[in-house]
């Protein structure tokens, strides 16, 4: 069931990206499009641009955080994985677009081919050059430069400008899009959808995106550079499932005006909302400086990483370090539910397993909840073989994993090698949010 949900989103992307290609193939007979080197290079360049612009638009939609996207991909974290992948593919296609068009002019001269890449009198071409250069700069910053979060977030706003310039280029350059009514109308709809998503999220989000306002009630410092924040709602409390996450922006001069994702650690039955944060950078390190009474704007909840989303009641939870946070909310709801859960809690040493005592207390009152600890400094790293040796055959379990990215990647590979189906392995990749 899970794989079908995930595939649905990608299937829609593939169909939408290939529809203009299908139309392009029947506008002019292929024997004319590929009759010589000039026509062949030009045609390949055109073929790169059609799905490239569609994917550019769809990527703006993927970054909008609209809730229906979670249903298509199986969770907001998976939406952002798709956003990351589609962004890279968009760049590749749109780079090859002018490269092949430039190659076609080699039949004239090398100098003519080189001049193709420079701005000239044709304003539509100049718009394309500007859009591509801006897109290349932004995606290089995303993939290859480790920027502070607030700078990275600021640069992402310029994607809308690159898309706007590229859209004008696509609609007004003399091409199959300008000559064929069906292609032109299709791209006008696609461009309108991408523009709408960008405007909604980046320009009008503060007016139209629902947010919950909470006030900071308690700040509890915990061992291991961890801080627990307890907040109370200004009006009604937010509804959520255990294991979901939210985007939070704290209104305080002591922290930067940024939205960051955090797992909710309180159970949904409580009016107060709790977050547990480890100091991993400037923003999270400064959260302990907040004062009681400070306001927080909350967007969400998001995510499908909840044991309640699955009918299989035999589950394995694997937490690495601060990756215990989504499991805290889930464990705190187990008193009244008939699930059989094995939690593997991995930490460097016992002092860093700051919630172990509470989890063992829950296990003492619920015989179907068992906690296993792995302290890597003395016992080595947790492996799929250790999990299998502890609980037996893994084939009939739903397995949830949250922790450092290398740990999650490694465990998922190991579990697949042991024959565990992909659709039974669920993870929360916060680094992609």
TrEMBL record:
<dbReference type="InterPro" id="IPR001433">
    <property type="entry name" value="OxRdtase_FAD/NAD-bd"/>
</dbReference>
<keyword id="KW-0408">Iron</keyword>
<dbReference type="GO" id="GO:0046872">
    <property type="term" value="F:metal ion binding"/>
</dbReference>
<dbReference type="GO" id="GO:0016491">
    <property type="term" value="F:oxidoreductase activity"/>
</dbReference>
<feature type="transmembrane region" description="Helical">
    <location>
        <begin position="185"/>
        <end position="209"/>
    </location>
</feature>
<dbReference type="InterPro" id="IPR017927">
    <property type="entry name" value="FAD-bd_FR_type"/>
</dbReference>
<keyword id="KW-0411">Iron-sulfur</keyword>
<feature type="transmembrane region" description="Helical">
    <location>
        <begin position="44"/>
        <end position="62"/>
    </location>
</feature>
<dbReference type="GO" id="GO:0016020">
    <property type="term" value="C:membrane"/>
</dbReference>
<keyword id="KW-1133">Transmembrane helix</keyword>
<dbReference type="GO" id="GO:0051537">
    <property type="term" value="F:2 iron, 2 sulfur cluster binding"/>
</dbReference>
<keyword id="KW-0812">Transmembrane</keyword>
<dbReference type="InterPro" id="IPR013130">
    <property type="entry name" value="Fe3_Rdtase_TM_dom"/>
</dbReference>
<keyword id="KW-0274">FAD</keyword>
<dbReference type="InterPro" id="IPR050415">
    <property type="entry name" value="MRET"/>
</dbReference>
<keyword id="KW-0001">2Fe-2S</keyword>
<feature type="transmembrane region" description="Helical">
    <location>
        <begin position="9"/>
        <end position="32"/>
    </location>
</feature>
<dbReference type="InterPro" id="IPR017938">
    <property type="entry name" value="Riboflavin_synthase-like_b-brl"/>
</dbReference>
<feature type="transmembrane region" description="Helical">
    <location>
        <begin position="157"/>
        <end position="173"/>
    </location>
</feature>
<protein>
    <recommendedName>
        <fullName>FAD-binding FR-type domain-containing protein</fullName>
    </recommendedName>
</protein>
<feature type="domain" description="FAD-binding FR-type">
    <location>
        <begin position="209"/>
        <end position="308"/>
    </location>
</feature>
<keyword id="KW-0479">Metal-binding</keyword>
<keyword id="KW-0472">Membrane</keyword>
<dbReference type="Pfam" id="PF01794">
    <property type="entry name" value="Ferric_reduct"/>
</dbReference>
<feature type="transmembrane region" description="Helical">
    <location>
        <begin position="123"/>
        <end position="145"/>
    </location>
</feature>
<dbReference type="Pfam" id="PF08022">
    <property type="entry name" value="FAD_binding_8"/>
</dbReference>
<dbReference type="GO" id="GO:0050660">
    <property type="term" value="F:flavin adenine dinucleotide binding"/>
</dbReference>
<feature type="transmembrane region" description="Helical">
    <location>
        <begin position="82"/>
        <end position="103"/>
    </location>
</feature>
<dbReference type="InterPro" id="IPR039261">
    <property type="entry name" value="FNR_nucleotide-bd"/>
</dbReference>
<keyword id="KW-0560">Oxidoreductase</keyword>
<dbReference type="Pfam" id="PF00175">
    <property type="entry name" value="NAD_binding_1"/>
</dbReference>
<dbReference type="InterPro" id="IPR013112">
    <property type="entry name" value="FAD-bd_8"/>
</dbReference>
<keyword id="KW-0285">Flavoprotein</keyword>
């Amino acid at each position: 069931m899970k794989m079908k949900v995930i595939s649905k989103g990608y299937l829609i992307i593939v169909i939408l990206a290939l529809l203009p290609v299908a139309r392009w193939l029947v506008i002019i007979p292929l024997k004319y499009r590929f009759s010589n080197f000039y026509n062949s290079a030009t045609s390949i360049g055109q073929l790169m641009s059609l799905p490239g612009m569609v994917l550019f638009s769809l990527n703006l939609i993927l970054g909008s955080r609209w809730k229906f996207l979670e249903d298509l991909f199986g969770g907001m974290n998976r939406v952002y994985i798709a956003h990351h992948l589609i962004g890279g593919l968009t760049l590749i296609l749109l780079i090859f677009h002018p490269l092949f068009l430039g190659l076609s002019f080699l039949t004239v001269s090398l100098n003519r081919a080189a001049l193709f890449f420079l701005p000239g009198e044709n304003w539509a071409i100049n718009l394309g050059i500007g859009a591509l250069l801006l897109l290349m700069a932004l995606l290089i910053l995303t993939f290859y430069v480790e920027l502070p979060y607030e700078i990275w977030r600021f640069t992402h706003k310029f994607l809308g400008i690159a898309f706007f310039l590229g859209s004008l280029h696509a609609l007004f350059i003399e091409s199959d899009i300008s000559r064929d009514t069906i292609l032109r109308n299709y791209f006008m709809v696609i461009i309108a959808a991408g523009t709408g998503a960008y405007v909604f999220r980046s320009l009008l989000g503060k007016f139209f995106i629902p947010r919950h306002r909470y006030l900071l009630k308690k700040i509890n410092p915990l061992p291991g550079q961890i801080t627990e924040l307890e907040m109370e709602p200004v009006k009604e409390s937010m509804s959520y499932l255990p294991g979901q996450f939210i985007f939070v922006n704290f209104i305080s001069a002591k922290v930067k005006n940024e939205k960051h994702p955090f797992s909710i650690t309180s159970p949904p039955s409580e009016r107060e909302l709790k977050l547990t944060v480890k100091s991993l950078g400037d923003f999270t390190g400064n959260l302990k400086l907040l004062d009681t009474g400070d306001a927080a704007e909350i967007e969400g909840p998001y995510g499908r990483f909840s044991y309640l989303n699955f009918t299989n009641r035999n589950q394995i939870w694997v937490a690495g370090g601060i990756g215990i946070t989504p499991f805290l909310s889930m464990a705190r709801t187990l008193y009244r539910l008939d699930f059989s859960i094995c939690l593997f809690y991995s930490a460097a040493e016992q002092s860093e397993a700051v919630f172990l005592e509470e989890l063992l207390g829950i296990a003492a009152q619920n015989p179907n909840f068992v906690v296993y600890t792995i302290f890597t400094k003395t016992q080595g790293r947790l492996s799929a073989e250790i999990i299998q040796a502890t609980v037996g055959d893994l084939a009939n379990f739903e397995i949830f994993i949250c922790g450092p990215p290398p740990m999650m990647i490694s465990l998922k590979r190991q579990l697949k090698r042991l024959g565990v189906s992909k659709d039974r392995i669920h993870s929360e990749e916060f680094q992609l949010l």
